[in-house]
Design goal:
- The protein is mainly beta.
- Helix content is 9%, strand content 59%.
- The chain has an 8-stranded antiparallel beta barrel with strand order 1-2-3-5-7-8-9-10.
- Strand 7 and strand 8 form a beta hairpin.
């Protein structure tokens, strides 16, 4: 799934740009987008690649994502669990920012965000040889970066971001309301 998303994000901008896109300098008011990002956080056996959704309301930008690290079996509630190293880390991230116009079409701006990492421990249960998991400590990572948006046509724009904990972010935003 994540490989397919990465391929789509690399191929879609060129496909959109090669189509008969109109450039009437419409100004998007509300945009919805999707994309992927790579975290600079040790996630153990889980992936550091995340998927995210984006909302752009004129110059305000918000982005929410996760690496969707999987768990196995049922959640264990026993408080007397043995201490192991975490097996995986599930990441949730929220970033926000304000976009400044560089010219009529390109926007760039600072982004600030928070990433929460939840440790996932896998434990062996002796009953029916099934596995269980439990969540461990919560870790906080702050993200400071920059986001840039470039139009592909009136209804689609490409965005690219760089940051401290979320190293690189790419995606497509589609105009829902424009004037």
């Amino acid at each position: 799934m994540k490989k397919l998303l990465c391929i789509l994000l690399l191929v879609m901008p060129s496909l959109l740009y090669s189509q008969q896109c109109n450039f009437h300098n419409k100004k998007p008011i509300l945009e919805l987008g999707f994309g992927g990002s790579i975290f600079d956080i040790n996630t153990y056996a889980s992936s550091n690649i995340a998927i995210h959704g984006t909302v752009v309301l004129q110059q305000f930008y918000i982005n929410i994502g996760s690496n969707l690290a999987a768990t196995y079996g049922g959640e264990e509630t026993d408080e007397n669990r043995p201490a192991y190293d975490p097996h995986r880390i599930r990441l949730y991230s929220v970033n926000t920012g304000y976009l400044f116009k560089i010219n009529e079409s390109i926007q760039i701006g600072p982004a600030i965000g928070l990433t929460i990492g939840k440790e996932i421990y896998i434990s062996e249960r002796n009953t029916f040889d099934s596995k269980a998991y439990y969540f461990g400590n919560i870790q906080k990572y702050y993200n400071f970066g920059v986001i840039g948006i470039i139009p592909l046509c009136d209804w689609a724009r490409f965005y690219l971001g760089l940051g401290t904990s979320e190293r690189i972010k790419v995606g497509l935003a589609y105009s829902i309301i424009s004037n």
